[in-house]
Each structure stands twice: as structure tokens, then as C-alpha cells.
Design goal:
This protein is an alpha/beta fold and 334 residues long. Helices cover 32% and strands 20% of the residues. It contains ten helices and twelve strands.
């Protein structure tokens, strides 16, 4: 599972508050880790600023989620704009194990910032999403849902944490279309007979598991493209933990119309569903960890549904009614 952090962008209009550990060469934004006791990333942010600086923050404004790939993991940084009354005095008094500094905005580009923050900061200071991955030459276009219809050959990605009901919903959704194929990415991963690397933490080399995950997504996209080209709806069910994984699908499905639906029942509902499974099929903490990761990944594209209390049939009813809202890319015509 990726490490999840929260960061506060605090500015007085002329200066930006930065933080670093003593001896570190690079500056970052104030913040810290999302802990198991934190219900939400907003709660984690408030706790970090309260514990480190003794200040209470107002309602944070979500800006973007940035990704940092390290040797053995991916770190997910959630960035919020924050108003923090009393921050000047708190910084002057010191913040314990971290050192803080106010940096003039005019000098930001010359400061040694952590690599994941430096290229994104100008856009964040403007209150805009950070630059998306470079997909130059990829022939797809993101469109407002109201401008597009859902035609035969659409690829629908159904995602969510383990236990959210993705497979059941994906198969039921297929049954509602005249022609549709279900592509289960977990089955594609298990096509590897020798050398299989489980995505479960600690069960395989993390880098090899990541490579096999990317391979499974490419294979799923290739199957979906073939089905879509033959006039079938293709319904992919997969666990997308990071926004980059949806970007991978969009690049591999260039030329196709793509919708994405995230099933995100409450933690309580997810726990109850998991408890109702046979013991050997229960996901336990893994399902809850995935829920936390997906809930905090900052993804705003597509349709995100709280399916607590819904049957699979009711979930599919809502998906079909709102499918145009789920569109994340429309087909490109030469």
C-alpha cells in the first residue's frame, strides 16, 4: 500500500510557509502522515498542524494529489490550501522536530524544494491542479459529461476497494447491455503461472508486483479495445489505488470512449460485507487499507458512488442512469 501524506499550503499573499527536518537540504510544505486513527485526510491535516504548531485550521481547500515514486513504494501527497490563524506566532516559537521558514513567493523558483513539489508548486499557488502526466500525442479528450452520450463500444472501468462488489456489479452491468464483455483484471494477473507476484503487501517483490500490475492493465486495455472495436461494451473490474493507474488506462485506450465508476461504500458497510464472506475469502485489514487509499487519492474524474445499503442491481440502476457523468474520455476520430 502506498504511504499517504497531507500537506498544507499556507500563504499570506507574499510569502509561503515551508518546513524541513534539520539537516535536510530540501524544503517541503508543512504536514505529515495519514495515520490509522485518522478518519479522513482533512482530519489528518488538522491533527498534524495542531500537534506540530499548536494551531487550529479552518476548512481546508483540496488542491491536488501528487505522486512520488520511491525505490520500494509510491508516496501519495494530498495538498490543501489552509487558513491558520495564529500561524505567525506559532512559527516564531518553533515547531519541535521541524524547522519552518517563510519564503517570499518571488523567490520560490530558486529555493531547493523536494522533487515531488517543485514542478507542481506554481499551479498550486494559483489554486489550480498540478500538471497532469505528459500524454502528448495521445488522441483522447476529457469532456464534460453533459456533452457526450454512451454508445456501443464504450469501455467502463469499475473500481473500488476489495469487497466493494466490483466483480458482481461489473457482471450485472454487462447483463444490462445487449452486447458486453466482462474483463476481470485479477484473473489476468493470475494467468501468470510461474513467477507470479502478488499485489498483497509483503508477499512478493514490490517492484515486480508493480510491473505485473502494469502488464495486467495493458492486457485488460488490449482486450477492451478489441471488444469495443467489435461493437461490444467492455466492462473492466480492477482496483485503481492511484490516479496514475487511470492515466495508464486512458493512454492504452486512446481512441475509445471510456467511463470510470468508483464503488466506495462506507468503512462500516465494507466491514460488514467482508464479515459475510466465507472465512477463507475475507480480506480483513487489506480491504480497509484499500478503502483508505482510494478515498484519499484525490481522484475527481468519473463517477464515485457510496453504495452502502445498495444491492448490486440497485447499484447498476444508478450507474446506468448516471453513466454519462462517468465519462472520462471520448473516442477520437481521424
Amino acid at each position: 500500500m502506498p504511504t499517504i501524506t497531507v500537506s498544507a499550503l499556507i500563504t499570506d499573499g507574499e510569502r509561503l510557509l515551508l518546513a524541513r527536518r534539520p539537516g535536510e537540504p530540501h524544503w517541503a510544505l508543512p504536514g505529515g502522515l495519514l495515520l490509522p486513527a485518522d478518519e479522513t485526510v482533512e482530519e489528518a491535516l488538522a491533527r498534524e498542524l495542531r500537534e506540530r504548531l499548536g494551531v487550529e485550521v479552518g476548512e481546508p481547500l483540496f488542491l491536488d494529489t501528487l505522486y512520488e515514486r520511491r525505490a520500494q513504494e509510491v508516496v501519495v501527497h494530498n495538498v490543501f490550501a489552509v487558513a491558520a490563524p495564529g500561524i505567525e506566532q506559532a512559527v516564531a516559537q518553533g515547531g519541535g522536530e521541524l524547522e519552518y521558514a517563510w519564503a517570499p513567493l518571488a523567490e520560490i523558483e530558486r529555493l531547493p524544494l523536494v522533487p515531488w513539489l517543485a514542478p507542481a508548486l506554481p499551479a498550486l499557488l494559483q489554486g489550480e491542479p498540478a500538471p497532469a502526466p505528459d500524454l502528448t500525442g495521445v488522441p483522447f479528450a476529457v469532456v464534460p459529461p453533459v456533452e457526450a452520450g454512451v454508445e456501443p463500444g464504450t469501455v467502463v472501468i469499475v473500481t473500488g476497494p476489495a469487497g466493494a462488489g466490483k466483480t458482481t456489479v461489473a457482471r450485472e452491468l454487462c447483463r444490462r447491455f445487449e452486447r458486453a464483455a466482462h474483463i476481470a483484471v485479477d484473473m489476468l494477473r493470475h494467468m501468470v503461472v510461474s513467477g507470479y507476484a502478488s499485489p498483497l503487501p509483503g508477499q512478493a517483490d514490490a517492484e515486480e508486483a508493480r510491473r505485473q500490475g502494469e502488464l495486467a492493465r495493458r492486457n485488460a486495455a488490449a482486450l477492451a479495445r478489441n471488444f469495443a472495436g467489435a461493437g461490444f461494451h467492455a466492462v473492466i473490474d480492477d482496483v485503481l489505488e492511484r490516479r496514475e493507474e487511470l492515466d495508464e488506462y486512458l493512454a492504452a485506450l486512446a481512441g475509445c470512449t471510456v467511463a470510470c465508476v468508483t464503488l466506495l461504500p462506507t468503512v462500516e458497510a465494507l466491514h460488514a460485507r467482508d464479515a459475510g464472506r466465507p472465512p477463507e475469502q475475507r480480506m480483513g485489514d487489506r480491504a480497509l487499507a484499500l478503502h483508505r487509499t482510494i478515498a484519499a487519492n484525490g481522484e475527481t474524474r468519473g463517477l464515485r458512488l457510496d453504495t452502502s445499503g445498495w444491492t448490486p442491481e440497485q447499484t447498476v440502476d444508478v450507474i446506468l442512469e448516471r453513466l454519462p457523468e462517468a465519462l472520462v474520455a471520448v473516442g477520437w476520430q481521424a
